[in-house]
Design brief:
Helix content: 10-25%
Radius of gyration: 22 Å
Largest sheet: 8 strands, antiparallel
Strand content: 25-35%
Distance between the termini: 28 Å
Mean pLDDT: 92
Order of helices and strands: EEEHEEEEEEEEHEEHEEHEHEHEHEHEH
Number of strands: 20
Low-confidence stretches: none
Length: about 425
């Protein structure tokens, strides 16, 4: 749990807790109430409350001029693995990591430095195009270069994600950063007025022949077994399934609290939901057929993945339901994250209904910082489809994006609070 509560919420000390969860700086004591609540010095509050306190602490430099120095880190980049063919039209490229060196990284107010056994690398903040985390790996994409992966071998990468984000925002203090991936996007990047460019009225890509009724026998068997398995393991309640249209294109947008969210939604419903899943979930050869049968397709979420966008367009234009987690990643503290601008822009460009989904209870089941499933009741509530007016990408303004994002977010929250 110290992956998320990585500073003392009382004094702000990093690497603060001893084996009894007592701060070595101010003696504040933490007690774990549940996976979503902890008590600090007798005050019981949701993890989200303490996490906000942790993020409110400022970043400070050491006398040597740096902010933080890591323990052992494995540096890797990525190379082509295999071409991936999903059912009828899904066409993607899978990548794998290639180890480069081991060393440590040092965070400075204006740059990140890697000092390895054979190479050193300086990455100024102004050259970073994208930044995020997957599990315990920081993923950083320099402009006009391939992605770099920093695997933390002896400590939590979450500490580094937050401190690097905070330091980058302070470096660009004059501009507000809207999001850090799939690219660092500033508020000034969004159109305030409609562009003169018209853009494509309807987004289309080459559509291959889809399997009749979108469901081969093998997939039917896997879905039925998967649904039985999920309902056996998880005390599951489903509400509002009638709100899923019997036919026609739509985009399903659920909140994302657990790794199991996509697995659960992929097998529950009569209609198939074709979900985006991060590229790393396809890295094991035995997972690929399962992901294929689940109707998932890969996306490199740390960069603008053109193949994933084409697959999303192909699914919708073929009259099927696309599944996207609009937060772009699992929440760390059970609170709904801001919706990704790229996802909202794609929804506006496609102009099909959005089906909001609220999944409650899955954070207790398997939060992002945990490695073991804890049996917990989960409720899936499907809301009525939200009509979305089609707007070509060049015509979209910041107001258009924020308006539909707020509507979707409010609907998801209502389903969570119901």
């Amino acid at each position: 749990i110290t992956d998320i509560i990585y500073r003392c919420p009382e004094c702000g000390k990093l690497n603060w807790a001893n084996e009894n969860f007592i701060c070595t700086g101010c003696n504040a004591q933490m007690k774990i109430v549940s996976r979503s609540e902890v008590s600090i010095n007798g005050k019981k509050s949701p993890i989200s409350y303490w996490y906000e306190k942790i993020k409110s602490f400022t970043v400070s430099k050491t006398p040597e001029g740096y902010i933080l120095k890591s323990k052992s880190v494995q540096l890797s980049d990525e190379v082509f693995d295999v071409a991936y063919k999903g059912f009828s039209g899904i066409d993607a490229t899978l990548y794998k990591r290639r180890a480069i060196d081991k060393g440590q990284i040092i965070l400075y107010p204006d740059r990140l430095e890697f000092e390895g056994s054979s190479i050193t690398r300086t990455i100024p903040f102004k050259t970073i195009a994208s930044f995020t985390i997957e599990s315990n790996t920081i993923i950083l994409v320099p402009k006009n270069e391939i992605a770099l992966f920093f695997d933390f071998l002896e400590e939590s990468g979450k500490t580094w994600e937050d401190l690097i984000k905070q330091t980058i925002q302070e470096y660009f203090a004059s501009e507000k950063i809207m999001e850090f991936h799939p690219r660092i996007r500033f508020s000034s990047d969004l159109n305030k007025k409609t562009s003169r460019a018209s853009g494509h009225k309807v987004l289309r890509v080459l559509t291959q022949q889809w399997i009749s009724n979108e469901q081969p026998l093998s997939r039917t068997v896997v879905k039925r077994f998967g649904k039985f398995l999920v309902k056996t393991i998880i005390p599951l309640t489903i509400e509002g399934e009638e709100n899923i249209p019997e036919n026609g294109a739509a985009i399903m947008m659920p909140n994302h609290e657990s790794f199991l969210d996509g697995v659960t939604l992929g097998v529950l419903f009569k209609r198939n939901i074709w979900f985006m899943a991060k590229n790393s979930e396809f890295k094991h050869f035995y997972m690929r057929p399962l992901m294929k049968l689940a109707g998932a397709f890969p996306v490199r979420r740390y960069t603008t993945d053109v193949q994933a966008i084409r697959n999303a367009i192909r699914i919708v234009r073929s009259g099927h339901i696309l599944g996207v987690f609009p937060e772009g990643e699992r929440t760390w503290d059970a609170e709904l994250l801001p919706l990704k601008i790229g996802t909202i822009r794609l929804a506006l460009a496609l102009g099909v209904p959005v089906i909001p989904v609220g999944i409650s209870g899955s954070y207790e089941l398997l939060p992002r910082w945990a490695s073991k499933i804890q049996r917990s009741p989960v409720t899936v509530r499907i809301g009525k489809p939200i009509p979305v007016l089609q707007i070509p990408i060049p015509k979209q303004t910041q107001h258009d994006i924020e308006e539909i994002a707020n509507i979707i977010k409010i609907k998801i929250k209502e389903l969570l609070d119901n």
